[in-house]
Specification:
The complex is a heterodimer. By secondary structure, chain A is an alpha/beta fold. Chain A has 10 helices and 10 strands. Chain A has a domain of 178 residues: Rossmann fold (3-Layer(aba) Sandwich), CATH 3.40.50. In chain A, α3 packs across α4, α3 packs parallel to α6 and α4 crosses α6. Chain A starts with a strand and ends in a 5-residue tail after the last helix. Classes of the chains: A alpha/beta, B mainly alpha. The structure holds adenosine-5'-triphosphate and magnesium ion. The site of adenosine-5'-triphosphate (ATP) has 12 residues of chain A, from β2 and α1.
């Protein structure tokens, strides 16, 4: 069910502040696309505009086009709620619902779609999603305990299970490993490599090795200067970005000769 | 606190003056409140004691203390429960509207207006109750007696003045509305953005987001607010004394002229002309109110803590 994403001339605003300008990018289905760049250059902002989470912030808006398999995300008749059901998101800080059990966390999205799901079917889906997120063996004996009782890495995998349970077409991940230790990070990277068989994945990361390890394509965002909007400076296959980038700025950033 | 003795003592952790002053005054305040509370309780018990031990015939009404206090307790609880049942859902709805639906400007304005309700003195509520609310309710009471009298609550006969238990309860409801809605508003607005965004990113509508991330988080706060409201409703004196037409007796009939009084209103009305054992009896009823309020608060804590595991706190 993975889909391709075409973004053209996208400007993203917070009120009157232009945070990101003129993004053009084509994201391939069934692949991992990494977004890198210095802090504050608008990676999160761009990512959140791909599932219309950006407009949740008062005054925030976008101009331009985001097309997913031919459908304009920002079309006048498109309901953002439907968009978010198709395009899942994993946040930087693990955020399982603290008032829900592990089971209910995973089932939360399924229950939302308001279809009456049979108990057995739901059990099955919860198990499959937890297995998909490599968490099943660790939590299968305590599905009714609160999700907030898990470790940070487990919570993040729970959030991934919750996101994939609704079978989205695209999975957006904003620095999903930044709060995790190297082992949990590796577990999540392995997971991403499995998941890309089924989903289109876009991940924001500050970890170059991570981008190099997991992604097929990499986009480099940068700020032209203080107070200037962020831009997508370069978008190329990951190998090229890390060996022979087109732009000087990319090379400087990657080799740590930045600023 | 300097020691001049020669033998080397292990160095004591240094405590700064400001720290000591603060710790001392905080402890003092904590102890003071316990002392005051114990003093009030001791006073109530010692003053109520003569009424507890007196022969039944000497108590006002002539049937003993229990027979005197029971209808008052019943009336107190009934009025408070009506107030709570009416005010809580309304307060929660108002709080949700203000925090998540209303446009910003309107939300701020509405917040002020609701808070203003809390600043109105209860005498004013009493006058409003008897002069505006009661007459306005009369047509409803007449209608209810005609069509709903099979329900014991509306058995009638309908009051011609409107000074009924239902009127009193509704008035109390308006009085406690600002307390509950202010606290609900506070907790709802603090529901973490992290979890609200998690819900929205799953494809929740605004109402679903509220059900997943806001209400569970705010639940204990709402219960706490409701209990504060209940406390005020149980203790409300003047407004009830003005509005309620009380003649004693236990009845669930909410629309007639003969209602049980409430403890606080009864004390206020009877105290000036009471002497001797009558005073002790009134104080005994006050002791009952004290115990009820304590029990309500403990119950509230128990409810709030029951699912502490799943609260937003961990
Ligand atoms: N809620 C907001 N309101 C106003 N401006 C915002 C908001 N969130 C982000 N910005 C601004 O938008 C710009 C891009 O921020 P963004 O969070 O997208 O950066 P980022 O690349 O994700 O940074 P980081 O790597 O530190 O996460 C910044 O200038 C930031 O100050
Ligand atoms: Mg970011």
């Amino acid at each position: 069910m993975a889909k391709r994403i075409d973004v053209s001339d996208l400007d993203i605003y917070y009120g009157n502040f232009l945070a990101v300008q003129g993004v053009n990018i084509s994201i391939e289905p069934r692949s991992i696309t990494a977004l890198i760049g210095p802090s504050g250059c608008g990676k999160s902002t761009f990512l959140r505009s791909l599932n219309r989470m950006h407009e949740v912030i008062p005054g925030a808006r976008v101009e331009g086009k985001v097309v997913i398999d031919g459908q304009d995300l920002y079309g006048a008749d498109v309901d953002p709620v439907d968009v978010r059901r198709q395009i899942g998101m994993v946040f930087q800080r693990p955020n399982p619902f603290p008032t829900m059990s592990i089971y209910d966390n995973v089932a939360a999205g399924l229950r939302l779609n308001a279809k009456k799901v049979k108990k057995a079917e739901l059990d099955d889906l919860v198990e499959r999603s937890l297995k998909g997120a490599n968490l099943w063996t660790e939590v299968k004996d305590r599905l009714n305990r609160p999700g907030s009782g898990l470790s940070g890495g487990q919570q993040q995998r729970l959030c991934i299970a919750r996101a994939i349970a609704v079978e989205p077409e695209v999975l957006l991940m904003d620095e999903p490993c930044s709060a995790l230790d190297p082992i949990s990070t590796l577990a999540i990277e392995d997971l991403m490599t499995e998941l890309k068989e089924r989903f289109t994945i876009v991940i924001v990361t500050h970890n170059m090795q991570q981008a190099a390890r997991v992604s097929e394509s990499t986009g480099f965002f940068n700020l032209a200067g203080v107070g200037q909007p962020g831009r997508l400076v370069e978008f190329n296959p990951t190998e090229k970005i890390f060996s022979n980038p087109d732009e000087k700025a990319t090379e400087d950033y990657i080799s740590g000769r930045f600023g | 606190m300097t020691t001049t003795s020669a033998p080397p003592e292990p160095p004591r952790p240094k405590r700064r003056v400001g720290d000591r002053i603060f710790a001392g005054s905080a402890t003092g305040a904590g102890i003071l409140i316990l002392v005051v509370l114990a003093g009030v309780a001791a006073f109530l018990v010692s003053e109520a004691w003569p009424a507890v031990t007196a022969p039944a015939g000497d108590i006002p009404g002539g049937d003993g203390l229990t027979a005197y206090i029971a209808p008052l307790i019943f009336g107190t609880l009934l009025a408070a429960v009506i107030a709570l049942v009416v005010a809580t859902p309304l307060a929660v709805a108002i709080a949700l509207y203000i925090t998540y639906y209303a446009p910003r400007r309107l939300a701020a304005g509405m917040g002020y207006v609701i808070d203003l309700l809390a600043a109105i003195p209860s005498v004013v509520y009493g006058f409003w109750g008897i002069a505006a609310l009661a007459p306005a309710m009369v047509p409803f009471y007449v209608w209810a007696e005609e069509h709903l009298s099979f329900i014991p609550l509306f058995a009638g006969p309908a009051s011609a003045t409107g000074r009924t238990m239902l009127t009193a309860g509704l008035m109390l409801g308006v009085m406690i509305l600002p307390i509950i809605s202010a606290i609900s508003r506070e907790v709802f607005s603090q529901a973490p953005a992290l979890h609200r965004e998690a819900a929205l990113a799953l494809g929740a509508t605004r109402w679903e987001m509220i059900k997943m991330a806001v209400l569970p988080y705010g639940k204990s706060g709402v219960i706490g607010g409701a209990m504060l409201g209940l406390g005020r409703a149980l203790g409300e004196t003047l407004a009830i004394a003005i509005v309620l037409s009380a003649s004693g007796g236990i009845t669930f009939n909410l629309i007639s002229n003969s209602n049980p009084s409430t403890i606080a209103a009864n004390i206020a009305l009877k105290f000036p002309e009471s002497t001797g054992l009558d005073v002790n009896t009134l104080i005994a009823s006050g002791l009952a109110l004290f115990v009820i309020t304590l029990a309500v608060n403990m119950l509230a804590r128990w409810v709030v803590n029951r699912r502490a595991d799943f609260s937003g706190a961990n």
